[in-house]
From TrEMBL:
Taxonomic source organism: Candidatus Auribacter fodinae
The name this protein goes by in its record: PHP domain-containing protein
Pfam families: PHP
Domain Polymerase/histidinol phosphatase N-terminal: 5-70
Cross-referenced InterPro entries: PHP_dom, PHP_domain, Pol/His_phosphatase_N, Pol/histidinol_Pase-like
CDD domains associated with the record: PHP_HisPPase_AMP
PANTHER family attached to this UniProt entry: EXONUCLEASE, POLYMERASE_HISTIDINOL PHOSPHATASE N-TERMINAL DOMAIN-CONTAINING PROTEIN
Recorded GO MF terms: 5'-3' DNA exonuclease activity; 5'-3' RNA exonuclease activity
Length: 290
């Protein structure tokens, strides 16, 4: 029997609409064997989902999606098999969440200047420890009848180059890759077809990028083919995920992408090989010092 995976899912701990429990249950309904909850700048969803994943016999991969910037472009890097207990990483995520909350206030202030009745407190109320983002604001604009749907909110108000857009705190892609490596993870460029900046991939490889998210809901057949060939050509890992944010949220449905489990096997083998190489290098260094 074929086994399938989805390594890019969001929960209500960032900008997804389903709870970690809801994501796990829905993944089980679609027969997925393994998933990665890759929330924006937080791992709270992953930790909350561990027990539910065990209950539904779904393999849960520790992951995160970090916000980066290159050439004034918003770039996302996925980290897999990361050590979320690392103290430095925990402090980094807390700083990012604090800046995300500040950004909500700045965006809503700009919306108020445009005559829209909305406040930062209104957006953040009830989010608790979730990592807030523009999608939360977009949903509020839909609920108020300001826009018909969340894509319209981004196009008219809060997307890049729009009147209420506010840049968020970001690291460079190199800094994101280095951070992921520092906590033992695999650094993967999320949805490369979205950026329309393929020339940057070569730069990211020089920075130590480990893989490409070849399979993604917004990738066309030709995109998938192109990035798969690119990954194979440069010896990069291949991953994939729906980037699901919740039912009726966007055109990123859960369960439609049939991503073979073998790609997750490749990630696991990469971790093993890197660990063995590090141990061998340490032993070689010690022997040379003796």
């Amino acid at each position: 029997m074929s086994k399938y995976i989805d390594l890019h899912l969001h929960t209500s701990k960032s900008d997804g609409s389903l709870s970690p429990e809801g994501i796990v249950k829905l993944s089980a309904q679609y027969g997925l064997s393994a998933i990665a909850i890759s929330d924006h700048d937080t791992m709270e969803g992953y930790y909350d989902a561990i027990g539910y994943a065990r209950e539904h016999n779904i393999e849960l991969i520790p992951a995160v999606e970090l916000s980066c910037e290159e050439e004034n472009k918003d770039i996302h890097v996925l980290g897999y098999f990361i050590d979320g207990s690392n103290a430095e990483f925990t402090r980094f995520l807390e700083t990012f969440r604090m800046h995300r909350r500040e950004r909500v206030y700045r965006i809503t202030e700009k919306l108020q200047e445009l005559g829209i009745d909305i406040s930062g407190d209104e957006i953040l109320c009830g989010l608790d420890d979730a990592s807030p983002g523009r999608l939360h604001i977009a949903r509020a604009l839909v609920q108020k009848g300001i826009v018909a749907n969340t894509p319209e909110a981004f196009r008219k108000y809060i997307g890049e180059q729009c009147p209420a857009y506010v840049k968020k705190m970001k690291l460079s892609v190199k800094e994101c890759i280095d951070l992921i490596h520092k906590i033992g993870g695999i650094a993967v460029l999320a949805h490369p077809g979205v950026y329309l900046k393929d020339h940057l991939i070569h730069l990211f490889i020089q920075h130590g990028l480990d893989g490409l998210e070849v399979f993604h809901s917004e990738h066309s057949f030709s995109d998938t083919k192109k990035y798969k060939q690119m990954a194979q050509s440069y010896g990069l890992l291949i991953t994939g995920g729906s980037d699901f944010h919740g039912p009726h949220e966007d055109n990123r449905p859960l369960g439609e992408l049939k991503i073979p489990y073998s790609y997750l096997d490749d990630l696991k083998q990469f971790i093993i090989d890197r660990t063995v190489f590090a141990e061998d290098s340490w032993l070689l260094k010690k022997s040379q010092q003796a």
